[in-house]
Design goal:
The complex is a heterodimer of chains A (about 240) and B (about 300). Chain A is an alpha/beta fold and about 240 residues long. Chain A contains seven helices and ten strands. Classes of the chains: A alpha/beta (about 240), B mainly alpha (about 300). At the A-B interface, strand 6 of A face helix 1, helix 8 and helix 9 of B.
Chain lengths: ~240, ~300
């Protein structure tokens, strides 16, 4: 279980004074749940994710996984970024291996073959990133994260740089990977439909500094058709919450 | 190259294979002929200009356009070089020059790598050392000569020090800025994967810096050639630079021109060797030059 307890964050501004970016957030994410952090840009949602990832320390509060305090990158967590962030000098297989360097060689090999198969890139294991399309590169990024067999997978606007066809395909793909591996998923997005289609819980953030505007629990089954009336209604509701009309 | 390109490349490779296998041997032969033609073009085209100049030189000498006392004919230069090869001195001169070059370049590269890595990686080292190094860079390198001769004498040490200084700056600057320019996002990936400092350096910083570093090495090598000549011109008893001074003193332009040609060949060969080595190490790079290479 992931526990975010009164986590807030301030950054020093140019004058050196503290500028709050995120007001205290309380959030608990149960195992094998999908939670999205949804909001317009600048609302601190990425900051919150980075704190959970251990890439940044919170100004107040604490994050814990199954009771253990997170104060740095952890073996239980893997992250997928907005850009694929592949090492251009490594092949696809070596890029996946990058996340599991601490494992024995044989185990690495098995896991690389396994995840590349899962994301459908087994034939491209010897390709360099420059030879991949955007969607393929992002799938390698996902494979690299999954190879760690994380308890919690964090995704920071993972599909926002892709065209809408590729995006939908990858959303479905991610969902099937989640069905198979039973990790907990927390992702940041500004795509309302993406949040509605994927999440068990949507945390709507707003403002500068960001604060939690509303938490929506969705207990309906997946897969959810993007055109379903319920999806459209909820989208409209969230648009209202964010004052986007 | 996009995925579609790969698919296309695969199908063309596949069809090529099937062609080679049987059905149309004629077509396969014409494709092989085209490949040979391309290779020949690549080998011949760069030689066109040098040989053209050589022809002009030859003709102008024959027609008496050049004063043979100042600009001897190609055959005379060749004779002079042949004579030096025969009595074994040319090889000695070349080896002496190359040895100086290698030592100077090696010391310069070593110092530049150590200092560039330090100032690139550590803000403290940069604040402490870089301003001084930049100030030293502002001194024209040849201006060190009097001091080096005074300190180290006129023999090898002063020459090698001068060459080392010449090679130092491009390597140092490229390495330092190369490290600073490493994509923070890639470093972050390393951090979230739990890499320690040593692993971050070895697995992210060094490979990411490699292109800039190799560019620096290549620039450093070019400057090392420049300074080996300068060092030998200022006083030496052996080496290609000495040969040129000797030719000047004794009024034999053929020797000077011969040495110039040898410098051109040696410099070009060493640069091409380093360039080849670089291209091998950097085949992952997604750049215009590389693309063209891989397609041809």
């Amino acid at each position: 279980m992931l526990d975010i307890d009164t986590v807030s964050k301030s950054f020093p501004d140019d004058a050196g004074a503290d500028r709050p970016a995120l007001e205290p957030v309380n959030l608990t994410v149960g195992e094998h749940k999908i939670v999205s952090l949804l909001g317009t840009s600048g609302c601190g949602k990425s900051t919150l994710l980075r704190i959970v990832a251990g890439l940044e320390a919170p100004t107040t509060g604490r994050v814990s996984i199954d009771g253990a305090h997170v104060d740095g990158p952890s073996r239980e967590i893997a992250m997928v970024f907005q850009e694929p962030r592949l090492m251009p000098w490594l092949t696809v297989a070596e890029n996946v291996r990058f996340g599991i360097l601490d494992l024995p060689k044989a185990e690495q090999k098995d896991r690389i073959a396994d995840v590349l198969d899962k994301v459908g890139l087994a034939d491209f294991q010897d390709a360099f990133p420059k030879q991949l399309s955007g969607g393929m590169a992002q799938r390698v990024g996902i494979a690299r994260a999954l190879a760690r067999q994380p308890k919690i997978l964090l995704l920071d606007e993972p599909f926002s740089a892709l065209d809408s066809f590729t995006r939908q395909k990858l959303q479905d793909h991610l969902l099937s990977l989640w069905e198979a591996d039973r990790f907990t998923m927390v992702f940041v997005t500004h795509d309302i439909e993406e949040a509605v289609v994927l999440s068990d819980r949507i945390v709507v953030l707003r403002g500068q500094p960001g604060r939690v505007e509303k938490v929506l629990d969705l207990d309906w089954p997946r897969p959810r058709a993007r055109t379903a009336a319920r999806v459209q209604e909820l989208k409209a509701e969230i648009v209202g919450l964010l004052d986007l009309r | 190259m996009s995925s579609i390109d790969i698919a296309e490349a695969e199908t063309t490779a596949g069809s090529r294979r099937s062609i080679a296998k049987g059905a149309a041997p004629e077509q396969a032969r014409s494709m092989a002929a085209a490949a040979v033609r391309r290779a020949l073009t690549r080998a011949i085209l760069p030689l066109l200009v040098p040989f053209g100049l050589l022809a002009v030189w030859f003709l102008f000498s024959r027609w008496g356009v050049f004063d043979p006392q100042l600009m001897p004919a190609p055959a005379e230069v060749a004779d002079e070089l042949a004579y030096l090869i025969d009595d074994g001195t040319l090889l000695t001169h070349i080896l002496v020059t190359v040895e100086r070059l290698i030592w100077g370049f090696a010391w310069g590269a070593l110092a530049a790598t150590a200092l560039g890595a330090a100032t690139g990686y550590s803000r403290l080292a940069r604040t402490l050392l870089d301003p001084t190094i930049q100030a030293l860079k502002a001194v024209p390198s040849l201006a060190w000569v009097p001091l080096f001769i005074l300190w180290f004498g006129i023999f090898e040490t002063s020459k090698i020090t001068l060459i080392a200084i010449g090679a130092f700056f491009p390597i140092y600057l490229n390495l330092m800025t190369g490290i600073q320019d490493v994509d923070r996002k890639l470093v972050e990936v390393g951090r979230i994967m739990g890499l320690n400092q040593f692993q971050l350096v070895w697995r992210v910083l060094i490979p990411a810096t490699l292109p800039a570093y190799l560019t620096g090495l290549r620039g450093g090598l070019a400057l090392a050639w420049m300074f080996v000549v300068a060092a030998e011109l200022m006083g030496a008893s052996e080496g290609l630079g000495f040969l040129m001074i000797d030719g000047q003193m004794t009024g034999r332009p053929a020797i000077i021109i011969g040495a110039l040609i040898l410098f051109a060949i040696a410099g070009k060969l060493s640069d091409a060797a380093l360039g080849r080595f670089n291209a091998r190490l950097l085949r992952w790079q997604d750049s215009f030059g590389v693309q063209e290479h891989s397609k041809s």
